[in-house]
Design brief:
5-stranded mixed β-sheet, 2 domains, alpha/beta, 290 residues, Metallo-beta-lactamase, Chain A
């Protein structure tokens, strides 16, 4: 546990978890991967003598809501989330249905893709005060209605609006749902003042600009690569293969779902920008640069 401000702490790990404490009452920012993470949080609360007031989920991905079920069962913790994320938290099978574009293959039925369901008790606005000293900011892009949290003592929790260098190197391409919103969000966050910035996956930093620039540059690079791959006429599968080869990624069912979904989102974005077009030839959907 690292203290970042008078009321704000972070438990650093595979998913960084925030603790915002006032007079012994804690609002948790995300709950981590699974039951184990819920257990660790519970232990910390006990050690500190804190009460859990609520869990705020920045968004509905399994690595952010995985501890909800444990905390709800054991501490009766209310879960708060935005309207767009709430259905996914209550019905995690929507996550895999969304990623796969239909009923998922059985290889996706695991805790990474399908967290245990939990009940959402309060719907949050995407912008504005949640509690005194704790504000939501909209961070659309990585997921549909993701939010970040800004604390009164100057800490900005950034969820998955950008990723640390180590994660980018390891995975090659981050998950992106809405490319236009993703870029706008990073540009906004880049200019936002804070004493500490906390990405969910990456080190806490006092200057977010280098990481914002790195993440933005990567999006530009992916766009260019996709446009080059569609110079001839290419199917989605050919484009996906080209991109994975370029970033030295090896696909399995999970990666195929995640990277595939991201590539489809990029193709839609480039089509919206009139940079790519598609046509159906002999029942194949082929993409072509305009
Ligand atoms: Zn995440």
């Amino acid at each position: 546990m690292r203290q970042l401000g008078k009321s704000t702490w972070v438990l650093e790990g595979p998913t960084n978890i925030g603790f915002y404490e006032t007079e012994g009452d804690v609002i948790l920012i995300d709950s981590g991967n699974d039951k184990e993470s819920g257990r660790r949080i519970n232990k910390i609360l006990k050690e500190k003598g804190w009460r859990l007031k609520a869990v705020v989920n920045t968004h509905s991905n399994g690595d952010h809501i995985g501890g909800n079920d444990y905390l709800q069962r054991n501490l009766d913790a209310p879960v708060w989330a935005t309207a767009g994320e709430h259905s996914f938290i209550e019905r995690p099978e929507l996550e895999t249905a969304f990623l796969w574009g239909g009923r998922e293959v059985k290889e996706l039925r695991n805790k990474f893709f399908q967290a245990r369901p939990s009940r959402v008790d309060r719907i949050l606005n995407e912008e504005g005060e949640i509690e005194p000293g704790l504000n939501a900011i909209s961070l659309k892009g990585h997921f549909m209605n993701m939010i970040g949290l800004e604390t009164g003592d100057g800490v900005l929790f950034l969820a998955d609006c950008l990723f640390g260098e180590e994660i980018l190197t390891k995975y090659g391409i981050p998950f992106i749902y809405d490319v236009g919103a993703y870029k706008r969000t990073i540009e906004t966050v880049r200019e936002r003042e804070a004493s500490f910035y906390v990405p969910s996956h990456g080190p806490v930093t006092e200057d977010i600009r280098p990481l914002a620039d790195r993440n933005l540059a990567l999006v530009g690079e992916i766009e260019e690569t996709l446009l080059t791959l569609a110079e001839g006429e290419s199917s989605f599968e050919e484009i996906l293969k080209g991109l994975c080869d370029r970033y030295l990624m090896e696909l399995n069912a999970g990666q195929y779902a995640l990277v595939g979904s991201t590539v489809r989102s990029f193709l839609s974005w480039l089509h919206d920008q009139d940079l790519l077009d598609f046509a159906f030839t002999e029942n194949r959907m082929l993409w072509k640069r305009r």
